[in-house]
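Researcher: Good morning. I'm working through a list of sequences from a screen, and I'd like to move beyond sequence-only analysis. For each chain I'm collecting a predicted structure so we can compare shapes side by side. This is the next one on the list. No need for commentary yet; just the structure.
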Amino acid sequence: MPLLSTLAFIANHPLSRGRKVRALADYFKWQIGCRLVPGQVVYDWINGSRIIVRRGETGVTGNLYCSLHDFADMAYLLHTLSPEDLFVDVGANVGSYTVLACAAKRAKGICFEPVPSTFERLMDNIRINNLCDRVIAKNIGLSDREGDLVFTAGEDTTNHIVAGDELASNVVRVKVMPLDVILGGATPSLLKIDVEGYEMAVLEGARQTLENLRLRSIIMELNGSGRRYGFKDDEIVAYMENLGFSTFRYEPFSRELISIACHDCVSGNTLFIRDAHEMQARLKQSPKILAGDIWL
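Model: Good morning. Structure tokens for this chain:
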């Protein structure tokens, strides 16, 4: 992310309210410190959780500056999960969502990260939070059938399956399987899918899981990148609607679910919720969480 865009993101982040100067100072402090003393830093995060921060990991450093990088979606996770729930993280990267779900909220977890080097960093975050007894981590990708696919390996949070006409030099071949086969009938309460455009194939391999009414909600990234594989976001929304899910965004301060139309689902993560009235009640009843200096 370009410098000006990064500074604007930090200054305008909802959790920078009343502390913009401090948030920007944290950014420059990290940028200088990670160059003077290279290595990793263990960041004390939400509700006793911890996460390892390394230079260049944009999906993690945003949490260092703003407490919750993906503010609405991470707050939704914190407000909806409980220790009795199962959280499944597809495209876990280094584990920000898994750490929040399973360390901060004590849910059980299953997470998937296909790129071996990223998977090792994911395991570091699982170990530092003592989650090996609560989280099953798998170094594989997900698709609609078993096989293997080629992934990019040097693009941080945007690693993805290499499309047929795509040129990429730093790649790795990884085993892929359908989610239904791996879960074997276990059903998450919350599912997160971040696979950089390959969502439709993942969903088609998760049909049994998606049809189970115990799955209440899904956080899924929709940003138009499915075009590289011949998928359209509106087709994904229609697929999910046929399974009983509707599209929403979340307002963490008021804890309100706001219904959104299909054409508003292409700027980032979208919430797919099966029973909005039940989920709204659950969100209102959830205990408050301290994120940085602000109670949510």
